[in-house]
Design goal:
This protein is mainly alpha-helical. The protein has 15 helices and 2 strands. The longest helix is centred in the first third of the chain and has 19 residues. The structure holds protoporphyrin IX containing FE and 2-acetamido-2-deoxy-beta-D-glucopyranose (4 copies).
Length: about 350
């Protein structure tokens, strides 16, 4: 709870700094949250960044879809209870009936596996588990963006992993559905201090990867969403001829595997796949930002680099908080509090709120 307040304070400071230094927009970067730094593993695991980089490079060459999988996993991690790798835990996001929360069902298993494989390599190279799973995820997402043709940026490090599962409720309230329009999207993002520029730039993550028919079929059936480009809609109907079709299609129809600004060109042509994409160009609050990014890849890359670093610092655990997992899919044995204690802590916290 205290970390939420610290982050809010830090981000309020960002807003102030940005307002007074718009002239320096070129190289601007959000401030680094206390306890994090760019050279966090300089002594404990000096090759950490290059190991992650070379793994992602060769794995993405074999499977370009992994880049999308890793970027989306970092986004889910940060939006659900903060960038603390809780999304990686087996058993997170499961409800009373052990049912997984819907958004997790479409995360790529290969991305979960890649994070564990990288973790194992880092432990071998550095002699102990010193690099957190949440840091691995942030680095792997950056390297995925770079390998797909996107901008590079420096990643602040020093996140620690949560010993707590994310609940299904955390997942559902943290991640907006693809049917959300701009007001609903901004409502979710404003809770974590992200604004309209962040929303438009981060949605540009949909310049790579795939979506299932079930994520946008409400735009085709029972009747076609009038904002859909007709030619584009005909193509979608060939892939998804009826409600409930279990198939996937590309998120960016122009350059599906390249991290570029074509996603925004699609929106201008009414070829956004989800309502959450297309509404960015329909709604007057965000339309001009979309138009700017459609015209200037450079403007998009600058804002994306800024916003993704900001996203990567949402409610992070640092210092002695949390743990460094020795298996990204499981909490460290013994580190967990007994259930009775956990429950009274949770109760105490909910009383505070
Ligand atoms: C703003 C709200 C967002 C919504 C509503 C949303 C929704 C979705 C949905 C529904 C899918 C497809 C799931 C499926 O049907 O298989 C998807 C895929 C994806 N999203 Fe988002 N997303 C959002 C933001 C983001 C952000 C911030 C990023 C990263 C910066 C991102 C990166 C991706 C990627 C890369 C994929 C493709 C994943 C793959 O191919 O495995 N999304 N998103
Ligand atoms: C556009 O988004 C803004 C900000 O959330 C909202 O106030 C406005 O009602 C939206 N416009 C439409 C037409 O939905
Ligand atoms: C529909 O998409 C095509 C191909 O991108 C484009 O030429 C056309 O202008 C689009 N139509 C509308 C109404 O945006
Ligand atoms: C990591 O944890 C998961 C979930 O508990 C388990 O299934 C898996 O076997 C563990 N991996 C290793 C290498 O122990
Ligand atoms: C938290 C959770 O249940 N994670 C699962 C999400 O989906 C992936 C891929 O199917 C699984 O590997 C995770 O265990």
């Amino acid at each position: 709870m205290a970390r939420g307040a610290t982050v809010s304070a830090a981000l309020a400071l960002v807003a102030l700094l940005c307002a007074s230094t718009t002239a320096a927009a070129e190289a601007r970067q959000p401030p680094v949250v206390g306890g994090m730094s760019f050279d966090f593993y300089k002594r404990s695991c000096p090759k950490a960044e290059s190991i992650v980089r070379s793994f992602v490079k060769s794995a993405v060459r074999k499977d370009i879809g992994l880049a999308a999988g890793l970027l989306r996993l970092h986004f889910h991690d940060c939006f659900v209870q903060g960038c603390d790798a809780s999304v990686l835990l087996d058993g997170s996001a499961t409800g009373p009936g052990e049912q997984q929360a819907p958004p997790n069902l479409t995360l790529r298993p290969s991305a979960f596996k890649a994070i564990n494989d990288i973790r194992d390599r880092l432990e071998k190279a550095c002699g102990a588990p010193v690099v957190s799973c949440s840091d691995i995820l942030a680095l792997a997402a950056r390297d995925s963006v770079v390998e797909s043709g996107g901008p590079s940026y420096k990643v602040p490090l020093g996140r620690r992993d949560s010993p707590n599962f994310a609940t299904q409720q955390d997942v559902l309230s943290g991640l907006p559905p693809p049917s959300a329009s701009v007001p609903a999207l901004l409502a979710v993002l404003s809770k974590i201090n992200l604004d309209a520029n962040d929303l438009v730039a981060l949605s540009g993550g949909h310049t790579i990867g795939l979506g299932h028919c079930t994520s946008f079929e409400d735009r085709l059936f029972p009747q076609q969403d009038p904002t859909l480009n007709n030619t584009f809609a005909s193509g979608l109907k060939r892939t998804c001829p009826a409600k409930g079709t279990d198939r996937r299609t590309v998120l960016d129809i122009r350059t599906p595997n390249i991290f570029d600004n074509k996603y925004y060109v699609n929106l201008v042509n009414r070829e956004g796949l989800f309502t959450s994409d297309q509404d960015l160009f329909t709604n007057a609050t965000t339309k001009a930002i979309v138009a700017k990014f459609a015209q200037s890849q450079k403007a998009f890359f600058h804002q994306f680099a800024f916003s993704v670093v900001k996203m990567g610092q949402i409610n992070v655990l640092t210092g002695s908080q949390g743990q460094i997992r020795s298996n990204c899919s499981a909490r460290n044995p013994g580190a967990a509090l007994p259930w009775s204690v956990v429950e009274s802590v949770v109760e105490a916290e909910s009383l505070v709120f």
